[in-house]
Amino acid sequence: MISHYIHSFLQDKKYPKFDLKAVFFDMDGVLYNSMPYHAEAWVKTMQELKLPFTEYDVYMNEGRTGESTINAFFPKVYNRKATDEEVQNIYKVKSQYFNQLPEAEPIENVFDFLKLVKNKGLEIFLVTGSGQLSLLEKLNRSFPNIFQKEKMVTAFDVKYGKPHPEPYLMALSKGNFDPWQAIVVENAPLGVRSAIDAGIFTIAVNTGILQDEELTKEGANVVFPTMKSLIESWDL
Questions:
Q1: Which pTM value belongs to this model?
Q2: CATH code, 35-99
Q3: Which residues pair with residue 222 across a beta bridge?
């Protein structure tokens, strides 16, 4: 089924061929069911600042850096961007709220999909806006022998972050891939936009509360409701 969408993608992009070498994975909402916790922490933090920020807003802005998220809403109330000190303090509060919540469990069936991709001989990259220092340790606990440090793009690596194409362009560069040699698995509108603007075939798995149209209007080449349905449609 996916090969059908790839055929249309190649015609649209006028790429010479499709030569799959790697799959790029977002983290929150793709690998881990962490978005409900991020939503709770962000909404509590923003409410304290009297900023109009809802659970739906959290999902719509998923993938931004913390600074970008704050400054997307801060001017609506304060008529200016937050200072660097304010950004640090606000994100610190958000992180404190988040760290008080239970550790997010992996998305159902995602380890099965990761193993399927690895068994096909494809390279696996992580492309996330997260800046967790212990990220690789966490990934290795959840998904043994899947992720490698040199095949990760995190908040520490980028200047712009999603929705800018920089994170996925950096993943292409790290792996020495052309855009037609990779597939992206995303769940967020801004992540989809980032991947599409990098010229990569993009699968959206809608694991959150958004309507599918929020993902398709950003350019997702195909949308699945669950990781299991993606596995069942994988014909590459």
A1: 0.92
A2: 1.10.150.240
A3: 203
